[in-house]
Amino acid sequence: ARHEEFYKLAKEAHGRVRENPQAQQMGIWGTWILTAVKQEIGELPTYNHRTGVFPGWEKLSGDYIRPRYTVSDRACFGCSLSCKKVNYVREGPFRGTLEEGPEYEGLMAFGSSLGIADYPTTLKANQICNKYGMDVISAGGTIAFAIETFENGIITEEDTGGISLKWGDSNQVIRLLEMIGRREGFGNLLAEGSCEAAHRLGRGSERFAMHVKGLEVSGQDGRTHRSIGLSHATAARGADHLRSLVTVDQLGYEEVAAKRWGADKLPEIIDPYTEKYKATAVVETENAYCIRDTLIVCWYSVSWPPIFWMEDFAQMLPLATGIEEFGRVDNLTKIAERQVTLKRMFNVREGITRADDRLPDRFTKEPMPEGPGKGQTVDLDPMLDDYYSLRGWDIETGHPTSKTLRRLSLEWTVN
Ligand code: SF4
């Protein structure tokens, strides 16, 4: 609506991204930059989330991959960051594979989580997932479940159709992915995902299915990053890292945390090993991401590096739309709260309660066995209490209260 002011602000916003040193690094390495970071903080899911450090991490890092495999950079329209990488394998069993990606989550799902220190395997696996329309986190997580279940003698070659499952076997992973995509043999069971596969197998296999509400856990670990434990437990569609992943605590952005949530919450709010104040960080981040996603703004530069936040959206929206009330952060926050609570009411209708906002026992009962976070577990309940209180949801049931529904004009969702 106010074109000149809008373009001036948009130009400034591009400049803020271009000049940010971390954004510049993202432009070179894409999300592969995360492999080294996650290894350093002990949050690189390895062997089906058993541990957070992987001895072969260097072969899954940007430093290793880019000079050997990257043939071009790509960007979405108008992006000044360009995180996408197109890659080509020149030799070895996957020679000739040409594909974009995978991003960090794919490196984790087909690399460290399966004990595979081989980038071409992850690229080939990513290509197969794209071909069949399969999610890389779910596909890799389900194969990791199968391997660990086999390793523990719960399933045998009788169940797998003669396949002996083991960690670090690239050819086997590629074969399994094709079988899942075509629903062939043992792949037909794995195509259901780890939650349903465990349900059908029984025999105690459930403890190796790393999922929340049926969705496989993404490439983070609440034991060494408490806020993501809460995010995984509360996200509407399951163990989702996209709706409220807080990077400010994980990577220690003290100034950003003080500005967003108040210096009085330091140092706890950026301490990845404490539950205190994590609900505040998750709720506020979830609200900001609701507006980010509503505006179709990229994950990067909002979530990481932490450049733009609610104030920036509030500054830009009235210029773009002419609607002045979008220029107030409290109004945007209310829109976001309404979205989160509406999704919750959808889940309430489907029978979801506090009991479903859980994490696999691996995160709450099995201490991190090694690395910087050795000995850590997630204490989920206090964070859930805080989260429900901040959201205006009932602490016992996890259902939005009548007062909250009235405040957000969502009374109609009750019936
Ligand atoms: S995903 Fe985001 S950072 Fe990557 S190219 Fe697209 S707009 Fe740019």
Descriptive account of the structure:
- The protein is mainly alpha-helical and 415 residues long.
- Helices cover 48% and strands 4% of the residues.
- It contains 19 helices and five strands.
- The chain has a three-stranded antiparallel sheet.
- Helix 14 packs across helix 16.
- The chain is globular and about 65 Å long.
- The structure holds iron/sulfur cluster.
- Iron/sulfur cluster binds at residues 75-76, 79, 81-84, 298, 300.
List keywords for this structure.
single chain, 415 residues, mainly alpha, Aldehyde Ferredoxin Oxidoreductase Protein, subunit A, domain 2, Aldehyde Ferredoxin Oxidoreductase Protein, subunit A, domain 3, three-stranded antiparallel sheet, 19 helices, 48% helix, globular, binds iron/sulfur cluster
In which order are the strands of the major sheet placed? Answer: 1-2-3
Strand content: under 5%
Helix content bin: 40-55%
Number of strands: 5
CATH topology name of the largest domain: Aldehyde Ferredoxin Oxidoreductase Protein, subunit A, domain 3
> SSE string, helix = H, strand = E?
HHHHEEEHHHHHHHEEHHHHHHHH
* Small molecules in complex: iron/sulfur cluster
What is the assigned CATH homologous superfamily of the largest domain?
Aldehyde Ferredoxin Oxidoreductase Protein, subunit A, domain 3
Q: Can you identify the CATH class of the largest domain? A: Mainly Alpha
Q: What's the helix and strand layout?
A:
Layout: H1 3-19, H2 21-29, H3 33-41, H4 62-69, E1 70-74, E2 84-88, E3 98-100, H5 104-110, H6 119-132, H7 136-151, H8 157-160, H9 170-182, H10 186-190, H11 194-201, E4 211-212, E5 215-216, H12 226-234, H13 254-261, H14 278-294, H15 310-321, H16 329-349, H17 361-364, H18 380-391, H19 402-407
Antiparallel strand pairs: 1-2, 2-3, 4-5
Helix pairs in contact: 5-6, 5-7, 6-9, 12-14, 12-18, 14-16, 14-18
Bound molecules: iron/sulfur cluster.
